[in-house]
Amino acid sequence: MKKLGLIGGMGPVSTIDYYQKLIAGFQQDHPQSCPPIVIDSLDVFELLKLEEQNDRAKLFRQLETSIENLTAAGAEYAALTANTPHMIFDELQAASPIPLISILDPVGEAIKNHQQKKVALLGTKMTMKLPFYFHGLAKQGIEVIAPASHQIQTIHQIITTELEENIFNPASKQVILQIIAELKAKENVQGIILGCTELPRLLNQTDCQQITIYDTVALHVNKLLAKMEN
């Protein structure tokens, strides 16, 4: 059984969600047992500033140090518990002494399993504007659409001022559902990537019956559990 390391705190709410889902998923096959996990928790607000400033060097140093901490604690593989830091995933993977499991891989696999070719991406402003999701999934034949500029600002504000503070506002949920409806109508997208690991706490597939919702946390967790036993 391989020990998993989580770079957490990005933010705390989604880190808890990862941990709970990992425990629940593991116990489906191993009742009355818990998986070996170590977490290095970082400051989401400091990281968000670095991401917004596109300070890739300082962001890299902080995440690299976290990976080193996890390795020293016995982790045999690791994952980032957020989408936006994947902006430097390739650099981190190249420098990491242990394998890193990208969140993009299981997302792409799920979209292909649904035989979909065009999806929209919701997340922080950086996730929706930087190229890592668009280029990463384009390699798998998937077109990724971003919301309009004013919608990007709205979604980013909801994430940073509410979801990262563990605030889940029904009115904000309706705003995002309206954005999803507009993306489906105007862009003819087949699915929606919840590309912020707090978003699945606000809405899920039952809220969007007419379009496929890709929960990046659930997909990532399943990939991490599979790696644990291989």
Concise summary:
The chain has eleven helices and seven strands. It is α/β, with parallel strands linked by helices and 230 residues long. Strand 6, helix 10 and strand 7 (212-215) form a beta-alpha-beta unit.
Question: Which key terms come to mind for this protein?
Answer:
230 residues; alpha/beta; Rossmann fold; 4-stranded parallel sheet; 3-stranded parallel sheet; 53% helix; 13% strand; globular
Describe this structure in words.
With 230 residues, this protein is an alpha/beta fold. It has two domains: 109 residues, Rossmann fold (3-Layer(aba) Sandwich), CATH 3.40.50; 112 residues, Rossmann fold (3-Layer(aba) Sandwich). It is 53% helix and 13% strand. Strands 5-4-6-7 form a four-stranded parallel sheet, with helices on both faces. The chain has a three-stranded parallel sheet with strand order 2-1-3, with helices on both faces. α1 links the parallel β1 and β2. α1 packs across α11 and α5 packs across α11. The relative contact order is 0.16.
CATH top level class name of the largest domain: Alpha Beta
Give the CA-CA distance, first to last residue.
8 Å
Any idea what the CATH architecture of the largest domain is? 3-Layer(aba) Sandwich
What is the typical, i.e. mean, pLDDT? 97
Beta fraction: 5-15%
What is the overall shape?
globular
- Provide the gyration radius in Å: 17 Å
Total separate domains:
2
CATH topology of the largest domain, by name, is: Rossmann fold
